[in-house]
Amino acid sequence: MDMWKPFRKSTQAHAPNASILFDKFHILRHLGDALDQVRKMEYARITVSQRKFIKGQKYVLLSHRKNLTSEGIQSLKLLLKANKRLNTAYILLESFDQLWTYNSEVWARKFFDNWNVQLRWQRLAPYEKFASMIERHWDGISAYCKQENKVALGFVEGFNNKIRVIQRRAYGLRDEEYLKLKILTTNLPEL
Predict the structure, then answer these.
(1) Residue 153 predicted with pLDDT over 70
(2) Count of the separate structural domains present in the chain
(3) Is residue 86 domain-shared with residue 172, that is, in the same domain?
(4) Angle between helices 70-82 and 84-96 (to 10 degrees)
(5) Do 166 and 179 have their domain in common?
(6) Which helix (H) or strand (E) is 116 found in, with range?
(7) pLDDT in tens, 10-64
(8) Same domain, yes or no, for 95 and 120?
(9) DSSP string, 137-166
(10) pLDDT digits (tens, 9 = 90+) for 94-143
(11) Is the predicted pLDDT of residue 161 greater than 90, yes or no?
């Protein structure tokens, strides 16, 4: 689920035994936003002549290296070589992906603590804010380490889409039990 507080509270109230697992891509979007804030701060901090390296490079910086063209890779290398703080922020972003590979909460926590220590003298305020957000939501992130929680998110998104379609079709109906029944029977085979 999303890290939005009402989602968590509702889940805890209506399904107290459920494991809360935060969406990996939602978390990575927050980290990407932190990198973009660092890019904007650097653009404002440096001289006009140095801005040519950063200007127009937002999507090159926020894309995964494997998704870039050869021209994009060259632009990224030039950008990272020209600005040390952006280089550090980019390396931290790329290394954070390793968190999702752990099958043990203990090792995932050690990785995060080491990742967090690397922020100490970097003066990357958006990253420090991101790290404190991760700290506050650690239970829902560490739940990803359990094998039973490694659910294909495509299935979850597809199921959520089915629920939205059912809700649109049921517009005006006031029977909540009927809606629950429709949701529960969406994946049953036809008779």
Answers:
(1) no
(2) 2
(3) no
(4) 120
(5) yes
(6) helix 105-117
(7) 888 998 888 888 888 889 999 999 988 988 888 888 777 777 777 877 788 888 8
(8) yes
(9) THHHHHGGGSGGG---HHHHHHHHHHHHHH
(10) 999 899 889 899 999 999 999 999 988 888 999 999 999 999 999 888 88
(11) no
Rounded distance between C-alpha atoms, residue 65 and residue 72, angstroms: 8
CB environment 27-47: b (16+ within 10 A), e (fewer): beeebbebbebbbebbbeeee
Residue 89's Cβ-count burial label (10 Å; 0-12, 13-18, 19+) is buried
Residue 44: inside a domain, yes or no? yes
Query: Tokens representing 137?
Result: 């939501």
User: Mean pLDDT over residues 73-88, rounded?
Assistant: 85
* Structural domain for 109, as ranges: 21-149
7 belongs to a structural domain = no
Q: Which residues contact 115 (CB under 8 A, 6 or more apart)?
A: 92, 95, 96, 99, 131
d(CA 86, CA 90): 6
pLDDT of residue 127: 93
What are the backbone angles phi and psi of residue 158, rounded to the nearest 5°?
-65, -40
* Predicted TM-score of the model (pTM): 0.76
Token pair 């990357």 is found at 124
Could you tell me how far CA 91 lies from the centroid of its own chain? Answer: 16
124: CB partners within 8 A, 6+ apart: 34, 38, 85, 88, 89, 92
Per-residue confidence (pLDDT) for residue 131, from 0 to 100: 94
